[in-house]
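Document type: protein sequence-to-structure record

Subject area: structural biology

Format: plain text, a pair of labelled lines:
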Amino acid sequence: MSKKPEFQELLEAGVHFGHLKRKWNPAMAPYIFGEQKGIHVIDLNKTIAHLEHACSAMRQIAKSGKKILFVATKKQAKTILSERVEPINMPFVTERWTGGMLTNFATTRKSIRKMTSIDKMKTDGTWDTLNKRERLFKTRQRDKMEKNFGSIADMTRLPAAIFIVDIIKEHIALKEAKRLNIPVFAMVDTNTNPKLVDFPIPANDDATKSIAIVLDHVTGAIKEGLSERKAAREKQDEPKSEQVVTEKAVTKEEAKED
């Protein structure tokens, strides 16, 4: 089992620091412990409970073989997110969220296929038939698409869920997911409305250490789900191979008798 979140590690990472009291969203009241020097303090016991609940649900999604799309385009979160999500092979968006990425998924897939077709040109000899200007245009086109869609190139269908670091910054992604009834997991700070999210994790969504620790637990749970899926599939394959060996042995015995 992955390591459970502990109060002290969350405290040290500054997960409890919210925004200025005047910037708060009243819907966050159940998750606020108090205030310190005009800044709201998040109740870390609530954070632990919600983080564990979110991790458990995400582990099950990964175990079922479905994809979770991660979104964080703000400066202090994008590198942290890509470093943690890439190894678990889940799609992620750290550059600009392209409007309609989910609600107009057919167009998104079209752009990804276009990117693949340019790559194919370089291997099937077509690239050599293009003049210098055409090559430059295709290269620029490919680079632009790679920036926007490279990290979701393997997402052949809509994700089973979406994880957002900052729902105010990523309001378009949130809106699209809600419109398509895609479950939303998200870090919710004291200035946000947690009711917009299916699995809210009350936490500081601005500090790098806070973002990193939440993502560590979340991706750890997904890793666990993927391992469980792999183990279950291997177990399923075992009896089949044993059966084949037994059948071959029986056939050999029958041949001897003949």
User: Anything to note?
Assistant: Strands lie at 17-20, 32-36, 39-42, 68-71, 92-93, 161-164, 184-188, 199-202.
